[in-house]
Structures are given as structure tokens and as C-alpha cells.
Amino acid sequence: MHFVSHSHPSSVGLVFKLILLVFLAFLTPQLHSQKQPTIRTGLDVVVATDFSDFTGKRVGLVTNHTGIDRDGRHIADLFKQAKGAELVALFGPEHGVRGQAEAGAKIASGIDSLTGVRVYSLYGEINKPTAAMLQNIDVLIFDIQDVGARFYTYISTMALAMEAAAEAKIPFYVLDRPNPIGDLVEGPGLDPAERSFVGMYPIALRHGMTVGELAQMFNEEGWLKTGPKETPQTIKADLHVIKMDGWRRDMVFAETGLPWVSPSPNMTSPATALLYPGTCLLEATNFSEGRGTHSPFEKVGAPWLDSQELMARLQDRVPGIDLRPIDFIPLDIPGKALNPKFKGTGCRGLQLEVTDPHQFRAVAFGIHLLCALQALHPKQFVIKENSMARLSGQRWVAQMILAGNKPATILERIEKETAGFRELRQKYLLYK
Question: In this predicted model, what pLDDT tens digit does every residue of 174-207 receive, in sequence order?
Fold first, then answer.
């Protein structure tokens, strides 16, 4: 008799399935960890080392709501609970320590409700810590997420705090964080004549540096000053940068695996930050940069715009971006935008989506956009020259656009300045 057994193959199949499940269970975390690199910010490093650099110190923190560790805990709360370090003062930049004030709103000093610690405002009447504010402090720490554009005011706050720490002869620590838009450098430098709180030093509009790297540059290039405005003296801070672990220069924020916290009410996502160095230039015009909508800097427009004509002009001029026509109505959004341009009026415009953050040049796109608007709507489109000089850093940018120069001509002049800054920054880069 001939017997064929069917029992063994099924049991073998069951064993094989179990082995496969175990293998996949092991492999999945490995694959996930490859997609989400383990990056520790400067604050994460401080927490991991149990605040050892600050044992026995009275600490002042220049920070806001972005000063969180990888578990979402705020730096003020962490230092308040830390053994050996004493949190004695908080210093809030534009938007405040907990990040609840809208752009441009003056911030009052007071008491932080969660820690009971004194809060000093560095936005409004006073932009720089005074000697009286620092008299009971042993060390001043800066921990704020920047977005990589010169006119984002947190780096101005850092520079002024460095000067104050140097004058008070106390160490200044920067807890480093990623530049969310990566390593690309673009845009003109800053003419000293256009120096303001939205641009203090001759760095490129899109600088491609972390705040720790910028702090080193500010310190070593002799840009920090003390004394009267008429006869200022160079001053240097006792600077310490606590580096990140695991961050690479070419990373954009979406590749870090870190939680995104909007650094300001209108910087809603990493996608917004990628566009910001270009579309923020619209703030110096009568064309909407999308404030008063839920995706500012990602949509632009005006009631008088021909969207299709503008899209045709911009299509394929700058790689890495997708454009589509859109209609929107800017409205008051409490805490984000009050009295936006064209409030309550229908605008025709473009929705902007960065499709390749490693290729997209935000400043180049901004110049193409401004030139297109000037060419298409010379009677309706207005550039406020003083404001454009303050934002772009150079008075000739607006002048060349208004004179009808081609974008390529303007960008060629910009690139000469960019190249000089690119070379200057090399010695201050902390990451590969």
C-alpha cells in the first residue's frame, strides 16, 4: 500500500510562519530606527548628563515654548526640578516664554505661572538683558528653535543676550538645535546701513547654520559690541555650545524625528519654514503672504492678481516646488494674525508646496515671484523700499526689481555675496 502523509507540511508551515513573525518583529524596529534617526538636541544632552554643567549654579534661561526635550518637557520645568541647579530667571523673546503672543505684540514681564520664576521680556521696550536682571545669575543659557532666516528675530535676541552676559562676566551657553531648512546658503548679506532687530549682522538671508554655529561666528568675528553707540568697543562672551548628537548638516526637519513645535504662531510647520526665507519678502509689499489664513507663507495672493499668468511665469523657474491656483479670504485669527492684508476680501493666488526640500531655493523663488508681480501688475503691485531693504539686507534688491531687471541678473549679483558668506562660515561649522 502507498500512503501519502499530509500532516508534516502543515506543521512545517506553522513553524515557518512563527519564525517569519519573530524575524519581522525584530526587523521592524531596525527599519523604523533607520527612518527616524536618534538625534539629541543640546537640551537632551544636558538632561542625559544630569545637568552636570550647571551644578551649584544660579541659572537664567533665554527660551520659549520651543525649548523642549525629546519627551516634550519644557526646559524651564526641567531646570526647576533639576537637583543641584537653581532656576532664578526666565527671559522671553518675541512671542514670549510660553509662545502665546502674536508677531510684533509687546510682551510684559511678570511671573511664569508654571515655575513661579521671574520672567523678563526681551521684546518691546527692552531687547537686551540689563545688568540688574543678571545680577543674581551665575550662567545664562539660550535654548530656542530657529528657522534659518536672518530676519527671524530669535538670533538677534541671542546676540544681545551674549553681549549682556559678556558685560556681566558670566558664561553664556547655547543648547544647540537643528537648522530646520538644512545647509543651503542663499541671499544677500546685510548692508550695515540696514542694521535692525530683524537683521543685525552681515550674514546671508538664508544662512544654513545652527544657533550654536552662529553664536561662535558672532563672538569670533568681533560683532558683539559694548559701550556707547558713538564709540562702541568689541566684546567677547565666555561662550559654550552644547552640541547635538546625531544631526547632519544636510538634514531638513522632517528627517530628524524630533517633534515640531511652531517657533512662532505663523510658523505652523517645517513646510512653512522651507518657504519662509522667500515668501516673507512679501511683507515689504502690498501683496498677501498668507497671514490671516491657516497656512501663512504657503499661500500668496491679492484681489487684483491673475493667478494663471503668475503661475505660468513661475512654472519650472525654481526646482522642488509645486504651484496651483487658489482663492482665499484673509481673516483675523486671534493669537496668529490681526488685521491682515486684504482682511475680509477675496484674494486670487497660489498655493505653494515644496516637493524637494534639498533642491528648493526659497530666496531664488522669492526673487522670481517679486519680479513676476512687478512685470504683471506694475500699477497695483507696490514694494515698500525701506522695508524691503530691511528684510533683504540690501537697498539695491528693490531698486533692481522696480527697474525691471530679470531675476537671473538679480540672483547673479546676490550669489557673489552668498559665495563670500559661504566661505566665511566654514570655520564655524560644528557638524558634517
Answer: 999 999 999 999 999 999 999 999 999 999 999 9
Between CA 5 and CA 198 the distance in angstroms is 82
Round the CA-based radius of gyration of the chain to a whole number and report it: 25
Name the CATH architecture for the domain at 270-393. Alpha-Beta Complex (3.90)
Q: What is the pLDDT of residue 113?
A: 87
CB atoms within 10 A of CB 104: 11
3-state SS string for 118-151: EEEECCCCCCCCCHHHHCCCCEEEEECCCCCECC
Strand arrangement of the beta sheet that strand 347-354 belongs to: 299-302, 347-354, 321-328
Q: Which CATH superfamily is domain 42-261 in?
A: Uncharacterised protein PF07075, DUF1343 (3.40.50.12170)
What are 226's strand-pairing partners? 233
Domain ranges of the chain: 42-261, 270-393
Against a cut of 0.85, is the pTM above it? Answer: yes
Query: pLDDT value at position 104?
Result: 60
